[in-house]
Write a structure and sequence with these properties.
heterodimer; A: 261 residues; alpha/beta; six-stranded mixed β-sheet; five-stranded antiparallel β-sheet; 11 strands; 38% helix; globular; B: 224 residues; mainly alpha
């Protein structure tokens, strides 16, 4: 069964067509990476999938529940009712490029507040699970710290814990390491890799090519609002497609050389 | 030496009357803050509303409140019921007119301060709250508003300090507050002393305001 299906998504900003008839589906347990140059529409695709942006036309389906579809009469997307969308939103979480932690909440409150006040979890259960998540992130000693006291890498790990605390079926990452230096990038990628071992479904927009190649079941290469190529990491990274090669450039060479060794 | 002693004696004699005036001043100050701070938030919502009619009405309201003298507004609130509607007002209405005039005037200023704070909040905070499933109400009062308060505190302090001094405008519709008392005493005694006393009172009041607001700012400085 597909966790998420996006069919024929169109999205325009002003006069710029950002997404041109994009279709994408994600199966349970799958890890999908979306790569591509800046401005290719990959972040917009993620924002449409998480309903932070509305699509112009197309279809978004989570676990066979339709969130949005094209009204044939007007040829325009319509969204499901408020209550249904609220229900659908529970099935996914998002990790932002710039974390978007709540600065006035401590680390543990960032993680437990939504479980307690949105899901109605018992406070002690939420705290226990929150501490457990922090341990997984290697941050158990930071529970009472505030985001401004943490490094970028630590912030992003808290943001991942915050998203996981709501037990989403699929976790989206929007360039999770783009605001971090190489050292901090490493620690965040390590955490994401550890989630892969837990069979959490993930859709990751990233510029970290080696990471995308290692972790993904499927890689999608986007450019100019279309999916240029899609396949296993091996297929995409050794692609003979001109556009893919142009983007991967040195990465591609490096990775294929590594592969031959 | 004797002169100084005399001066103190004079001051002491005035104090009971001045205290009565002070009580009224503090009352105007407190009532204005208690009602204009929440009303201002409501007005700022109207100012940012999607509905263009509501937006236009609140915009006009703010524009008028900021664009005309507070003294004139007090006159209109006080004399308006009689001259416009022919309603005879009682003497008690004077103080009520001051409360109403100050509250609607300060609400307009606070509304714009709230708006500046709310609009300066990064979209990411709303987006994160939405993804975590917070309702619109929760998002505003748990996530956005506490951070807005921190951002607008210096501007609010400014406004509160102005309010302390503005309370003396109640004098113009003969409400017996601090400044009215000082003026009466000064003309009765043909001396400056009551004004000096009044000046000291306003200064100490504002010093207190500044200390309290600084305390709030410090309390909120645990995060950035």
């Amino acid at each position: 069964m597909y966790l998420l299906e996006m069919n024929h998504i169109q999205k325009k900003f002003e006069n710029l067509q950002v997404l041109k008839d994009i279709s994408l589906s994600v199966k349970e347990g799958e890890i999908v990476s979306i790569i591509g140059p800046s401005g290719s529409g990959k972040s917009t695709l993620l924002r449409c999938a998480t309903m932070l942006e509305t699509i112009d036309s197309g279809e978004i389906v989570y676990l066979e529940e339709k969130a949005a579809w094209t009204d044939p009469g007007r040829n325009q997307a319509v969204y499901a009712g408020k209550a249904k969308l609220k229900e659908i939103r529970k099935s996914y979480g998002l990790v932002f490029q710039n974390f978007n932690l709540f600065p006035h909440f401590s680390v543990i409150k960032n993680i437990t507040d939504a479980p307690i006040h949105v899901q109605g979890k018992k406070k002690e259960d939420a705290l226990r699970e929150g501490m457990e998540l922090l341990r997984k992130m290697g941050l158990e000693d930071k529970a009472d710290a505030y985001p401004c006291q943490l490094s970028g890498g630590q912030c992003q790990r808290v943001a991942i814990a915050r998203a996981l605390a709501l037990n989403p079926k699929v976790l989206f990452f929007d360039e999770p390491t783009s605001a971090l230096d190489p050292e901090l990038t490493g620690e965040v990628l390590k955490v994401i890799r550890s989630l892969a071992d837990l069979d959490i479904t993930m859709v990751i927009v990233t510029h970290e090519m080696a990471f995308a190649r290692d972790i993904s079941d499927r890689v999608i290469f986007m450019a100019d609002g279309v999916i240029v190529e899609e396949g296993t990491p091996e297929e995409v990274f050794s692609s003979s497609n001109e556009r893919t090669q142009a983007f991967l450039g040195r990465y591609g060479e490096m990775l294929s050389r590594e592969g031959k060794k | 030496m004797e002169q100084i002693m005399n001066w103190f004696a004079e001051m002491a004699a005035m104090l009971p009357q001045l205290f009565d005036g002070m009580a009224v001043t503090v009352q105007i100050f407190a009532v204005t803050l208690i009602f204009s701070l929440p009303l201002g938030l409501l007005v700022s919502f109207g100012r940012m509303a999607k509905n263009p009619v509501i937006r236009w009405i609140t915009k006009a309201y703010i524009s008028i409140m900021r664009g005309t003298p507070l003294m004139l507004q007090l006159f209109i609130v006080y004399f308006g019921p009689y001259y416009i509607f022919g309603i005879r007002v009682t003497n008690d209405y004077r103080l009520w007119a001051v409360f109403i005039g100050f509250v609607i005037n300060y609400a307009a200023y606070f509304a714009e301060i709230y708006r500046s704070g709310i609009q300066s909040m990064p979209a990411g905070q709303y987006e994160a709250a939405k993804l975590l499933g917070y309702s619109r109400f929760q998002t505003f009062f748990k996530i956005i508003f506490p951070q807005v308060i921190k951002r607008i505190l210096p501007a609010v302090t400014n406004e509160v300090i102005t309010l302390v001094k503005d309370t003396s405008l109640a004098f113009t519709i003969s409400v017996i507050e601090m400044f009215t008392v000082a003026k009466q005493l000064a003309s009765a005694q043909a001396a400056m002393t009551p004004f000096v006393a009044a000046g000291i009172f306003y200064y100490v009041f504002n010093l207190l305001v500044a200390v309290v607001m600084e305390h709030f700012e410090k309390k909120l400085s645990y995060y950035q």
